[in-house]
Amino acid sequence: MKTTMSLLQRAVATLLTITSVSAQTIAQINGDRFLSALNGQSVSNVTGIVTAKGPDGIWIRSIKPGHDKRVSNGLYVYGSALAKNTSISVGDVIVVDGKVSEYRSNKNYLYMTELASPKVAAILEHGKNVDPIVIGKGGLCPPTREYSGLDKGDVFAVPNNQSLVSVENPQLEPELYGLDFWESLMGELVTIENPRAVGRPNQYGDTWVVGDWRTTGDNDRTGLTVSSGDGNPEAIIIGSPLDGSDNPTDTRLGDHLETITGVVFQAFGFYRILPLTNISIIQSLAPEVPGPTSLLSDGTCGGITIGSYNIENFHAGDTAHVQAVAKHIVEFLHTPDLLAIQEIQDDSGPTDDGVVDSDKTLDALVAAISSTSSVAYNYTYISPLNDISGGAPGANIRVAYLYRASVLQLRNPEKGNATAANEVLPGPELRYNPGYVDPANAAWTDSRRPLAAAWEMVGGEGRTLFTVNVHWTSKGGSTSLHGDARPPVNGGVGGRREQGVVTATFIAALLASDPAAHIAVLGDFNEFAFAQPIADFARLSGLEDLDVVAGVAEQERYTYLYDMNSQELDHVFVSPALAARTKGFEHVHVNTWVAYGDMTSDHDPSVGMFDIC
Prior knowledge:
Elements: H1 2-19, E1 20-22, H2 26-30, E2 42-53, E3 57-61, E4 74-78, H3 80-83, E5 93-103, E6 112-125, E7 133-135, E8 163-164, H4 165-168, H5 178-183, E9 189-192, E10 196-197, E11 207-210, E12 236-238, E13 256-257, E14 260-267, E15 270-275, E16 281-283, E17 304-314, H6 319-332, E18 338-344, H7 359-371, E19 377-380, E20 398-404, E21 408-410, E22 424-425, E23 429-430, E24 435-436, E25 451-457, E26 465-471, E27 485-486, H8 493-513, E28 518-524, H9 532-541, E29 544-545, H10 546-550, E30 560-562, E31 565-567, E32 570-574, H11 576-579, E33 582-587, E34 606-610
Parallel strand pairs: 1-2, 4-6, 7-9, 12-15, 17-18, 26-28
Antiparallel strand pairs: 2-3, 2-5, 3-4, 5-6, 8-27, 9-14, 10-11, 11-12, 13-16, 14-15, 17-34, 18-20, 19-20, 21-25, 22-23, 24-25, 25-26, 28-32, 29-32, 30-31, 33-34
Helix pairs in contact: 6-7, 8-9
């Protein structure tokens, strides 16, 4: 009996050792990795100074912070009862017991270490001074290029999703990697001095900022432009204020803000700072909107202008949107001779009623343009089959062209249909003008077919201009740059690679027929120029990136604002012969510079000028 009791006592003692740990420092809970070594274990006598209180918990800091840069001395203690306990205030030194937990609300997010089921054992002191850690001082600056060592040097690498932070749980290297840097400050009270907005706030006012530290990719609007291998990990999102106030939702790119103090947190797939109170805008940049393009057509083959613009779910039923798009085309793009447009809905808009034509929709746009200018546009497009092109259900979005009737015309027009595949004929000529590029190819499943066309000057001067208007598949299904998957999932990347090959094959046939052909492929590629789908497309097609041809500075190559990054999803690629006759290329930032409520589209338009004589 004595032996039996001894074994039982040992078993209980072993179980207690596994499930309960006495932890005197917060650093022991956090450790030097993403996931706590004490996850799932009960701990006692955790002592810390209360640095902030929120609606669902409090934050505490070690009494004697350690000096290991990899280890945070702050901790979130989760418990609404504790948060509402009026006997506990910021500056109190408390002793708390609880259970170490790793929490995330979605499998794609990183875990956050917290202390759950807390019980306050004692309040040792009141009124202790709490000084925030100032990011950007004393060498405490976020890395500016890489997010994680698990990305193997390229956060945009393909293949992606090759490892998980939650599985690898690497040791933190905060001086090298952005995720490691923010993790090393998890739960800490921090200050950002001289912050500026580098992204547009969401509907809750969550806004991406950088502070008084080194940044890369700075564009002229003081945003951060993404580039090869550099997704700008130095930016951090400012989330919901802890005092219940609201952040402004009209913050704009480049706005200067008041000093921000708050706690480092993890939520909704991103590291963030929850400020003690709301963001306050000090100053916005001038001008509020950019000037119009400097590229003006002279109406001859020596200086025609070609534009591209994703006009975001465009249909005639939204009169205000029609007028706003027309204003952009007239006032900011100076009514280019040829304009490739994307996301044109059918005549019934987002109603799934079998309607596929867009004549009424495009008539409305043409009429709105002519009402405020002397320019008369014609248009051309091909209706897709019902419910096969992706986008808003029932809207049947497609690409289309507007062209100035006094300047350009379709060469030997013979319109194709939704299933007819365009061909390159001797000359070269197009079998269908306009016509879809290989519309039956599986690469276009739930996506828009590219529309190829051949143009000539009214009056016959100059060479034939071939264009392909594209709107490749979206990035839906992507995971956050701060997410668990490394490198992050680039949604739709496989589809865009296939679409690039199909498009490039068609272009290669044109160039094989005439190496001196004037060709432009333009539109919404839904991908970065340095990413594999576009890199493969450029290599296989033999076309050149017009940004590079025209000498657009790398940091000024952006047409879209997403999270912390100014980025370019809309491109123009030109044949060598057309590249040699390029007279200019500009992105017109009419949408990325303005507040969310003032956007006409989520994309910026672009305009190029060419000599096709």
